[in-house]
Specification:
The protein is built from 12 helices and 3 strands; from the N terminus they run ααββαβααααααααα. By secondary structure, it is mostly helical. A 3-stranded mixed beta sheet has the order 2-1-3. Strand 1 and strand 2 form a beta hairpin. It is elongated and about 75 Å long.
């Protein structure tokens, strides 16, 4: 049997299987064998960690195929793209992987571009080289946006989310897994707020997430009904998206009451359309 090298970083990129999904996979392999070959790069397993664990547990045979990549970053990019293409991911997982790919592609392109600049561009043209980097960064967002049928802005928001989750993962891999699986509930907005935090702040946030006391930094900014959350304790535990939803709903109700006093159906339809657009924006930012 071929010796296979396991890589913890590659394995952690893969979505975790819950107990039910793992048991289903194990039953299927025991019944039909491993129908899909494990994928290797330089002898390192890059696809099939769950299957490999089951196969070795039961001492079952399997096939492998090898793929060629120039770097670990290119392997990670392939793993992410492969997972997005083959799995039913949660919205949080999908956003995370899109953002992870954006950050990784930008890093790969940046490294390649720096090499090109160093080799082919004179020092006097360094400003031009910077413009090339910016153009390639933009094309990364546009490329992924087209591939996943979302906007470039969504891809860049996903990148902030992925950065925050990866920072959490560096402190607590288990917390990262729980967030991506949905076991631990935390909003996208809360995650994005952690992007620029220091390592110590991230550690504090992880501890708060684990014990269930983590709150948005802006959670006290608004309370439904027009008050401040400092004056309305019942809203202290609201998620940021709940506060935003409550605010827009209150504004919509007020506008609707104003239009209801007249027979101006055009104004009512306009208010409804504006509310629908606000809900769409909220949906895209959660």
């Amino acid at each position: 049997m071929q010796e296979i090298i396991l890589d913890e970083k590659f394995e952690r990129i893969l979505p975790a299987l819950d107990e039910i999904a793992y048991n289903d996979l194990e039953r299927d392999i025991l019944l039909r064998g491993c129908l899909m070959p494990l994928v290797l790069w330089n002898g390192i397993l890059i696809d099939g960690y769950h299957r490999y664990g089951i196969l070795t547990k039961h001492d079952l045979p399997f096939n492998t195929i090898s793929m060629e990549f120039d770097s670990r970053d290119e392997v990670i990019d392939w793993i992410i793209e492969h997972q997005i293409a083959r799995r039913n991911l949660t919205p949080m997982q999908l956003s995370y992987y899109r953002g992870y790919r954006y950050n990784l592609d930008k890093q790969i392109r940046g490294a390649n571009n720096q090499h090109t600049i160093a080799s082919n561009i004179l020092a006097s043209e360094s400003e031009k080289g910077q413009n090339v980097t910016q153009a390639k960064t933009q094309s990364t967002a546009s490329k992924l946006a087209e591939q996943y049928n979302v906007s470039s802005r969504t891809i860049k928001r996903d990148a902030l989310l992925a950065n925050a989750i990866n920072k959490i993962g560096e402190t607590s891999p288990e917390t990262k897994i729980d967030i991506l699986s949905g076991k631990t509930k935390i909003s996208r907005k809360q995650l994005k707020e952690l992007t620029g935090d220091s390592e110590a702040d991230i550690t504090d946030a992880v501890n708060q997430i684990i014990d269930g006391t983590f709150k948005s930094k802006k959670a006290g900014a608004y309370a439904p009904g027009g008050g401040n959350t400092n004056d309305a304790a019942e809203y202290d535990n609201m998620q940021p998206w709940e506060i935003t939803f409550a605010k827009m709903t209150d504004e919509f109700r007020q506008a609707l009451r104003t239009h209801a006093k007249t027979d101006d159906t055009t104004s009512v339809r306009s208010a409804l359309r504006q509310y629908i657009e606000m809900l769409e924006n909220l949906y895209n930012n959660i």
